[in-house]
UniProtKB/TrEMBL annotation:
InterPro entries given in the database record: AAA+_ATPase, ABC_Ni/Peptide_Import, ABC_transporter-like_ATP-bd, ABC_transporter-like_CS, Oligopep_ABC_C, P-loop_NTPase
Name listed for the protein in its UniProt record: ABC transporter ATP-binding protein
Species of origin: Leucobacter iarius
Taxonomic path: Bacteria, Bacillati, Actinomycetota, Actinomycetes, Micrococcales
Family stated for the protein in its record: Belongs to the ABC transporter superfamily.
TM ranges: none
Keywords: ATP-binding, Cell membrane, Membrane, Nucleotide-binding, Transport
Molecular function GO labels: ATP binding
Main localization category: membrane
Keyword Aminoacyl-tRNA synthetase among UniProt keywords: no
Membrane association type: Peripheral membrane protein
NCBIfam families (alphabetical): oligo_HPY
Keyword Membrane: yes
Length: 335
């Protein structure tokens, strides 16, 4: 087993004019080579903060606690030079919003070649051009696009360029943060298929972040569901979507229409209300303020957050009553 990413008890807090804002609160994850791990959740759940932690891209206002290891290296302990060498070569990132990530006055070829020339300074211009053509074809684009400018490409083509750029230095770990943002459904499926195929062919570890639980479940080996900066459920992708245990996961899955069911697009249910404000620590609870099944007893019986063994015993007092767990199941907390 080749472990590429290990995250242990990660906690990220941002300092602001209103005080400290806890964005991630005690998250632990692991990803091996050739495997795909998805992180799902609403905006503000802490997904992109975890992605930034992998390559240490947080602003200076962030306080990071816990351990993040990429290819055996403690990311937070690396010097600036070592961190620079780790980026692109060991781990790379596909950012959301490709339309705003490409330089409009440089050709696609120049932009894809840049990380090769910077991180492999002995590479000649000719070798870099050959590598650009190879990368573009790898993501399903014609090599001739190297001479194009960003405005000449569609949104889906630009996103493929971003993927090609991330693969320029043969990283072993690829982090894709909302790679299908602002793309139509058909193009989203194409981009996801490109990422999935690349992970399989190149043996990459792929960390895929999205708010769309249905998409992640169809692509990822394992899916983590986050709410309020914590992991509330985790399990095999297809199983988690088909048999969600936590009420929040069920609500998140219900926010999207079911493919093949023509009536489902008219009745997606979704999640009620907005997430609690991170600026008010007292308001951050497990999902109580938004749960349709809470009758007030959850807060009385559990004033503090208690984490259950994921999948075996979800973080829900009414799991048995709701049919999530059988009546003879035992639930042990680990606070």
């Amino acid at each position: 087993m080749n472990r590429l990413l290990t995250i242990e008890d990660l906690r990220v807090t941002y300092r602001s004019s209103r005080g400290e804002v806890p964005a991630v609160r005690g998250v632990s994850l692991a990803l091996d080579a050739g495997r795909t791990l998805g992180i799902a959740g609403e905006s503000g759940s802490g997904k992109s903060t975890i992605a930034s932690a992998v390559l240490r891209l947080h602003p200076r206002s962030a306080r990071i606690e816990g351990r993040v290891e990429v290819c055996g290296q403690d990311v937070n302990a690396l010097s600036w030079g070592a961190l620079r060498r780790m980026r692109w070569s060991d781990a790379a990132m596909v950012f959301q919003g490709a339309m705003h990530s490409l330089n409009p006055v440089l050709t696609i070829g120049d932009q894809v070649a840049e990380p090769v020339l910077v991180h492999r300074p002995t590479t000649t211009r000719g070798a870099a051009a050959h590598r650009v053509a190879e990368l573009l074809e790898m993501v399903g684009l014609a090599a001739e696009h190297a001479h194009s400018y960003p405005h000449m490409l569609s949104g889906g083509q630009k996103q493929r360029v971003m993927i090609a750029m991330a693969l320029a230095c043969d990283p072993r770990l690829l982090v894709a943060d909302e790679p299908t943002t602002a793309l139509d459904v058909k193009v989203q499926a194409q981009i996801m298929r490109v990422l999935q195929n690349l992970a399989e062919e190149l043996g990459l570890g792929l960390l895929l972040i999205s708010h769309d639980l249905a998409v992640l479940s169809s692509v990822c080996d394992e899916v983590v569901v986050m709410h309020g900066g914590i992991v509330i459920e985790q399990g095999p992708g297809a199983e988690l979507f088909a048999n969600a245990q936590h009420p929040y996961t069920r609500a998140l899955a219900g926010a999207f229409p079911t493919i093949g069911d023509p009536d489902s697009r008219y009745r997606p249910q979704g999640v009620g209300d907005d997430p609690a404000s991170f600026e008010d620590p007292a308001a951050i609870r497990e999902f109580l303020s938004r749960c349709a099944h809470d009758d007030g007893g959850c807060l009385v019986h559990r004033p503090e957050f208690a984490r259950f063994a994921l999948r075996d015993a979800p973080d829900c007092l009414r799991a048995t009553e709701l049919g999530i767990l059988p009546a003879d199941s035992e639930t042990e907390t680990a606070i």
